[in-house]
UniProtKB/TrEMBL annotation:
Protein name: Uncharacterized membrane protein
Organism listed in the record: Streptomyces griseoaurantiacus
Region annotation Disordered: where it falls in the sequence: 1-35, 171-212
Family matches, as InterPro entries: DUF1003 (IPR010406)
Residue ranges crossing the lipid bilayer per the database entry: 60-77, 89-109
Amino acid sequence: MTPDRESRERAPVGATASSRPRARLDQPRPPRRRLLPEYDPEAFGRLSERIARFLGTGRFIVWMTIVIILWVVWNVAAPEHLRFDQYPFIFLTLMLSLQASYAAPLILLAQNRQDDRDRVNLEQDRKQNERSIADTEYLTREIAALRMGLGEVATRDWIRSELQDLVKELEGRHDGRPDGHTEGRANGHRDLPPGPRRLPPGSGRGRDAEDR
């Protein structure tokens, strides 16, 4: 078998065969060349917001009014060879139109960024409200469970009423027994069982001395 034939047999055949080199996944792609200049969208957006915020203030209106008045006065009262925009002030109209054409997109861009922030804030508020509602429902269920548990717990008034009923029942039982038993109980003596009573010490000796 010749070397050319061996190389043809070892070469991949079908969809796996590729003439172009495979791109390595462990390395980043080289940066592509762009014809347009690159810029930071965030930086441009912040700049547009600053400009739009300045355009919406009274300071901008005052400065623009001052500039227009100076422009008109200079082109009317200045010597003729120093005037750069004579009546009807076409160059001034062009500058104001150019300013308006740039101000409108900048204001729209700032509004779009503000809308995006508002949307994010609303989404966060919605999630926060959902968490608050879930916590409130959980606390409500816990409070209901505690109330149900406290309903089965013996309170002080209930124990007091039960003790009073028990005392009344014991008094009724005492009233139903013979008088001797009740009197003995009332005097604090216990009922002695039937049988010979024990004499206190010394009582027998006294009786012997009397008999003698």
